[in-house]
# Entry
Amino acid sequence: MDNIINSAVIAAGGSGTRMGGDIPKQFVQIGGIPIIVRTLLKFETCPDIDEIIIVARDSDIETVKRISAEYKITKLTHIVKGGATRQASVLNGINAALGKFVFIHDAARLFVTTEQISEVVNETHRFGAAALGVPVKDTLKTVK
# Structure
């Protein structure tokens, strides 16, 4: 573990109440694969990420362990309990990180690419900090 420079903290502590589902959205399956796995695989396959820390609700830790093992998330070093707020949860993840640089990502944001992750890592190394932003889509839909 001496070579860890870049740590990814994946915030997976949401309850999914705003979405209105029976399960937290990070565990909803798309094409038979949980959203959290689709997100984790991006960080797992990114050559610039050395370790992954997942922050989860206490009641979801065993599920996260099982899913991570099933999908062979080998960069996973810690699964930590979330806090009372998102800020407290992310801090718990940061405190578990071994890397010099820590990158925070939401488990339910599965459309990030490994190229985007690498770009943020490279810009962070260059400038000391970086954040990813993407243009909004000009789509408006009406539902009756």
